[in-house]
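Per reviewer request, we include the raw input and output of the structure prediction for the construct analysed in the revised manuscript.
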Amino acid sequence: VNTGNNLEIWQNTPQQNLPLPDVQVWGRHGQAEHQVLLARADKLEPGDPELAEIERLMAETPDKDWNLTPRGMAEVACGGLWKAKHLLTPGPYGLIVPGGIFDGGYTSAAKRAQQSAAIELLAAQSFLTRSAIKLDARGDPILPIDFRLREINLGEQTSMTKQAYLEKHADNIARRAVDPLFTAYRDGSTLAEHMDISIRSMLGTLKRDTVTRGSKSAALFTHGRTVRAAALTLRRDTPEDFARIEAEEEIKNATMFI
């Protein structure tokens, strides 16, 4: 595709006929502050002052502003070392990432995702003694913020403890247990909508990068349900596949889909 007329190719070719990068690595962030608070809230009894304080923090803190915890930083640092060892250097199956360096990538606007990106790439760079991702003319990583990599819209659940959400919206939890792919979170969206709107649009951008920049690989730093949506889209899983996969494959902190 590197013919000198890449922009024209991009503009005049149906997207479904354009190639994706050879390698995409979709990664979830490490443990974040709100996850610790929610785990603590699960152990508290109704009426406990500490539970009330956690509920206040959840309600008042924008989802994008939660930082990584020290444990989360360690998780993504391990992820960076794993990428360097298994993707960016030759192994039993050869070199997974062409050239041994990511051509580019994107991160969610959430602090925890941006911090994960910086720590993972620094850890990989330290292992390789060179940059793990291509740099621009100023020497900065080619890793722009992209709002499509946000977490799925969890609606009211974003700012509530599990206990409070269960008490208020037990019916919604029950419906999502029966049909998790097409049932929306209260005042939120469905995973299927996230796939159609955010993931397919993001894949279009990766195709553009392949055509206009010759990109062969990309590192994406995002959230658990977004990693799930990307995997479902790229694998072309059916709703029946999803029900099985949801039960068998947990998207833990720092999980990667390659």
